[in-house]
Amino acid sequence: MRLVRNGALAVAASLVLWPALLFAHVALRRSEPANGATLRAAPRIIRLTFSEAPQLPFTRVELIAADSQRVALSPLRVAAPDTAATVVADIVGPLRAGAYRIAWQITSADGHPVRGAVTFHIAGNATGLAISPMDSAASAALPPVTPGVDTPLAPGSTDAAPFGVDSWQYAVVRLLTFATILAIVGAVVFALIVVPATHHRVPDLDADFVIGARHRAARAAIAATAALALLLVARLIAQSFAVRGSLPDARFVSDVARTPWGAGLLLGAASVLVLGFALARARRAAWRIAAVAVVALALATALSGHAAASGHWTVAAVFSDTVHVLAAGGWLGALLLVVVAGLPATSTLEPAGRGRAVRGMVEAFSPMALTFAGALAVTGVIAAVLRLGAWSALTGSNYGRVLLFKLGGVVLVLLVGAYNWRRLRPALDASRVGTLRRAAAVELLFGFFVLVMTAWLVATPPPTE
Question: Can you give the CATH number for the domain in which 402 is found?
Answer without folding.
Answer: 1.20.1630
